[in-house]
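Before any further analysis, backbone shapes were mapped to integers, which produced the following:

***
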Amino acid sequence: MIITDNHMHIYKHLKLKALEQFKQAGGTHVLLVSLLAHHYDVFPKSGKDFVKVFEEHLNVVRKANKIVKAYAVLGVHPAEITVLGSRLGFERAAEIMKEALTIAGEYVAKGEAIALKSGRPHYRVDAHVWRLSNEVMKHAFELAKEIGCAIQIHTESYNYDMGVEIAKIADEVGLRRDKVVKHFSPPKVKEFEEIGIFPSVLAGDDKVLTAAKEGDRFVLETDYIDDPKRPGAVLGPKTVPKKVKELVEHGFGEDFIYKICKENIEKLYGVEL
């Protein structure tokens, strides 16, 4: 049985042991997402400085492939606007983020990564920073449209209006709505289907079962961050396999699991599992 975690980080707590735990629990495929630059001891002054971030992340993904089948997602975390902005000014921070995203897109175009990551802050910022963040995200959408890839987005907590707003930004640049993957989604599968963007459901509590009762148009994630200060956060690496097996116990067949863990992933990212 294929079991895929759509969004996980490897940092400096369990590191690759997290993937060994994932595999032991039944996990087979994982999308590993790059972190903020400072996690790699990089303090960018230009977009080109993110090359070190991306190369280090790709090196981790190569090592991960000795344990499970791992794919790279590259991009710029939207919180960089605050980190870089406090040091270099917010206008310059936005420029750097756009430059870095363009470079990330080159890796995707070459087949070294399968998707981009962008978004906007999940915390309160002033109107100026919010506008700049939306410009950065729109640039990332333009890149995804040009490359023909999916983009995972990290944003404020989901609600219907923000979902529609994000979908309309995709429309503006000609990016298919179903190529926009909302990281950290609630299990509102029918609502996401109505809007058109794709939910990556956080697999905690009863959310997986709730999502499954609404349909099969979703993928699953733990958003495991591998931070020694927050062990097990957001969810532990074993969570997706455990929750998928719970679906089976609740009567969801292998065809259903195939759909959410294999077919949906393949359609989103243009890969063959």
Summary: The radius of gyration is 17 Å. The chain is about 50% helix and 15% strand. The chain has a mean pLDDT of 98. Residues 43 and 216 are 41 Å apart (CA to CA).
